[in-house]
Amino acid sequence: MPVRNLYPNKGPLPQQPTRFPYITKLIYLSLTSCQVVITQFVPAAALSFQWYTPEACLQFKEHFHAQVRTACQQSTGTAGLKISKVVVVGDLHVGKTSLINRFCKDNFDREYKATIGVDFEIERFEIIGMPYNLQIWDTAGQEKFKCIASAYYRGAEVIITVFDLADIQTLDHTKQWLEDALRENEPDSSFIFLVGTKKDLVSDAVCERTELDAIRFAKEMQAEYWSVSAKTGENVKEFFSRVAALAFEQSMIKELESTPGHRAQIRAGNLIKLEKNIVEIPEDNAQVSLSCC
Length: 293
Ligand SMILES: Nc1nc2c(ncn2[C@@H]2O[C@H](COP(=O)(O)OP(=O)(O)OP(=O)(O)O)[C@@H](O)[C@H]2O)c(=O)[nH]1
What we know:
- By secondary structure, this protein is α/β, with parallel strands linked by helices.
- Helices cover 27% and strands 26% of the residues.
- It has a domain at 80-257: 3-Layer(aba) Sandwich (Rossmann fold).
- The chain contains 7 helices and 11 strands.
- The two termini are 28 Å apart.
- This is Ras-related protein Rab-36.
């Protein structure tokens, strides 16, 4: 069963709001209401989404890092459950809660209920055989809640800055939201995404024009750009699976590198030592297979 949020901080609105050919994408082998199973990155040729461009994508690889794959294959399942913190920021009414609810609960509410302070969901994944959780923090866009919400920015492995494709001003504000979130985190410790929401509300022509600006912003922010619709669900599962895969890989690499001398030893019948990109096999165990998924 999915773990649900402990702080149901959504409340009634206090007042009416004034208001890539090379992209690395993921295959879902199975998707249930409570768990997403991810087995591999897929090559660009398999992409059906045309609106992404190489400029919008930071990583072009086709597979998980070799060390990560090997570590997952050799895992005895006794490793602690991995969890990464994701923080979602952006102006009020841009659709942060709707995006999270579409992914975590597969629902969409037309009615706007402002987030008060923060809220969070935990979503379970299985990535190349390893259980993995994303803790997704939904923060309030309203100015008056900013100081409460910013207290939760710390320790974010992923920062998602959200804007409304139908309201270009909200794109202008994303840099400030990102700056605020980065201030609470170690330099270069977070993946950054720029997400345009409400794709269903804009024509293809408007979307394309806005995306040119968005991709420029994404480059400056060192972010990966995605456009989604919480209403139709377009791209939402793909986006969060991408987030999960990158965060998972990063956390595995960190764990492998944190062992003394950047070396992890994994015992699974034979002893395999992983060091940087080189897999060393003890000579007397030369029959160990190195083939990966
Ligand atoms: N048509 C359409 N409407 C959307 C979409 N996403 C969100 N909305 C609507 O936009 C309004 C605001 O959505 P929320 O998800 O509550 O916005 P938020 O960013 O969480 O707002 P705050 O909690 O104030 O920060 C709601 O009325 C949603 O129904 C979308 O993809 N398409």
